[in-house]
Structure formats: C-alpha cells, structure tokens
C-alpha cells in the first residue's frame, strides 16, 4: 500500500511541475524572440535603415548603379529600383553618400521601390536628385519563385543533342559569359572543365547586367534564358554553337 501511495504522490508532484516547466519554457522563448527582434532593429539602424508602415528609410554609399537598379551595401537584402530620371544620371550615384525613402513590396521581397533619393554634397548637406512621380515597371525583375518554377536546368548538352534544348522556352544553364567585338556567347563546360558548346546571346536584360556587376568576385553564373532558334547543323558541328538565347537573369544559384 505504501508503495502505491508513493507512486501516486510522485504523479501528483509531476502534474504540478509540468505546467510550471511549460510556462517557464514559453517565457524563455518569448524572451529570446524579443531579444532577436530588438537586435534586428538595432542592426537595421546601425546599417542605415529604418522601417515604418511599409516605408523604409535607407542611407549609405552607392556601390552599383545600372539602368534603374541601385545597390547600397548598408541597405542589406535590397536591390533598389528607381523609376524615372535622376539628376545627372543614375550612374553618377556610384561612390556617393545618399539617403532616401522607399516602399517595400511584399510580393517582391528583394526589391525596394525608391520614392526619393538625396545625395550628400561637398558641404555635407543633402540635395534631392530623385523624387518618384511614375508607376514602377517590373519588366526586368525575375522573382526567385519564377526562377524555381519556370527555368529547368539544361544538362549534358552537346552539339549533336539538340533534343536537350529544343521544345523548351525557358531554361537555366551554368556557364561563363564572353563578350566579343561582334558576338556575345555563353560558354558551357562539363564537369571536367572542358568546353562542350556555346550559346549565342542576342540580348541581356538590365536586371541580369546589374547582378553581374554586383557579383564582381565571380565570373561563372547560373544564367536564366529565353531560348530561341537552334543554330543550323553544319554551323553547329563546326563551331559548337548550339542555339540563340536572351539572358533574363544571372546569379549564383
């Protein structure tokens, strides 16, 4: 009888301890979440960013400015898109200290739509060089979801295996871009580093050019392509040029 009383007592104690432990763990994780959020806010402020109601203020030095895209390292995680004219031209922003305001688009989480940009002058004062008055056109932007869903990887390509690309409208391929005086090509290599063919590049979209400038430490990328006509058999056999394509985006994955 004493044995069962002891078991019952232990169960009673455990039934009281478990709720306490559960509440303690819940409080602990809530505290961690609060600390993490606070640190994220501090990091954003330290890097020259703050946000309120979908509007984000940014500040830093422009590293890349091409077409209508701007990269500011302090604006971590964002490519800033500028729709409209900038006083002096967008490429004049490179190396300049700027601050501005942009809108965050939830369906395009890597983009920040610039509403205004001010540039610091020689006196240390900021002068406005851009105020958005136009609707943004996202024609060159290619989301990660679209990249994953619409662009299968082309593999095991060869000049005599045109079935590997024909019938496909979009695809991605890993290679190196080479710009010549009269022709731009995408060089494709196999796992051993041997060249197996080239793609003739007819056009490179601005977003792809911008990203290649942004990733200056690399010379090989995944290229996301609109596939076009196949090179005729005789030329393909002689030059190993496989097909024509437009480059929509270039990235590391």
Short description:
By secondary structure, the protein is an alpha+beta fold. Helices cover 27% and strands 36% of the residues.
Describe this entry's structure for a reader.
By secondary structure, this protein is of the alpha+beta class. It has 3 domains: 1-40; 49-131, OB fold (Dihydrolipoamide Acetyltransferase, E2P); 144-251, Beta Barrel (OB fold (Dihydrolipoamide Acetyltransferase, E2P)). The protein contains 4 helices and 13 strands. The chain has helices at residues 2-46, 144-150, 206-214, 233-239, and strands at 49-52, 55-61, 64-66, 69-71, 79-81, 97-104, 111-120, 126-131, 170-179, 184-189, 195-204, 220-230, 241-251. Strands 1, 2, 3, 4, 5, 6, 7 and 8 form an 8-stranded mixed beta sheet that branches. Strands 9-10-11-13-12 form a 5-stranded mixed barrel. Strand 1 and strand 2 (55-61) form a beta hairpin. The longest helix is centred in the N-terminal third of the chain and has 45 residues, at 2-46. The relative contact order is 0.10. Mean pLDDT is 84; it is low at 1-46.
Counting structural domains, the number is 3
Q: What's the CATH first level of the largest domain?
A: Mainly Beta
Give the biggest beta sheet. Answer: 8 strands, mixed
Helical segment tally?
Answer: 4
The SS-based structural class is alpha+beta
In percent terms, what proportion of residues is strand?
Answer: 35-45%
CATH level-3 fold name of the largest domain: OB fold (Dihydrolipoamide Acetyltransferase, E2P)
